[in-house]
Amino acid sequence: MSQTTxxxxxxxxxxxxxxxxxxxxxxNKPGYVRMSGRLKPVDMDPISADEVREFVDTHVPRVFxxxxxxxxxxxxxxxxxxxxxxxxxxxxxxxxxxxxxxxIKSRVxxxxxxxxxxxxxxxxxxxxxxxxxxxxATGSGKSSTMAAMLGWINENMDKHIVTLEDxxxxxxxxxxxxxxxxxxxxxxPTFELAIKSVLRQNPDIILIGEMRDKETFETAISAAxxxxxxxxxxxxxxxxxxxxxxxEFFPPEQQVQxxxxxxxxxxxxxxxxxxxxxxxxxxxxxxxxxxADTVIKTLILEGQFEKIQGLLEAGTDxxxxxxxxxxxxxxxxxxxxxxxxxxxxPNPQALEMNLKGIFFKT
Length: 362
Description:
PilT/PilU family type 4a pilus ATPase, single chain, Beta-Lactamase, T4SS_GSP_E_ATPase, alpha/beta, globular, Rossmann fold, T2SS/T4SS_dom, ATP hydrolysis activity
């Protein structure tokens, strides 16, 4: 093992033992770790530009070397023996290399591990077909929540599950279900090729790492319409923003057809934020969940998206609720403070009223 790899592994070991989620490395700076959402410097010597570059050059898979050299950025997985597995993004900034690593937990999380309310998530996990989208900002725990849902399916249902990931995050062991996990670049050259071939692989459930473009979404719709259940993630903060992002994939002349397809195939959105807890310095998920019932499908079909948020705020249905409803639950349970709930609320004035017992009605 080279001296550079030892330096990196020591930093990664410290990060894992400290419970950090991410490690940020910038040339000629000491390492930084993100703990409970906050970035903190590590007491260590600066890592030189040559050492940062050497780490990527040494550990990037051979099939990605050309991309690193030509494009100046690359994603891959790195395993450090006895420490853990990490998702790596190497990139250049101002002419020098930087790296961001995310620790990938070796054990598939459960709803209880993550502090999630399982009932609304199980309603979506039990769907026979359709599209379920897990949304949130980078670092909001989307992949963990999706993994917990697939983990429950694995324990309870006999399904053939094909995942398309860049890179693979959680490694599943077959239980009642059979998993085929394909890593882009290693198991299949491109995401586009993986998407085109997935329906020929006889899946019951398809996990698409990220809903990234129109072609991906059209494939997801095609799979949903032919009896498959599709899980994917999307960068969007709320249900309203998620709907807007979906329809941005389609030009104006295709909007009517797109609404018809989405109304028919969408089963639900799970939007997520991580909120600091009152004790222990950790974070707990808060969710906004939309379960696409008949009323929601009709509103999507008619393009009346503005009415959906009102239904989430006013509804008492356990299958669909707003962020404020879930933040209210977490405050009343003593899990998060009122101040933190208000800070993360998309509508703090409304949450303030909720906490006083005042709720909107439809």
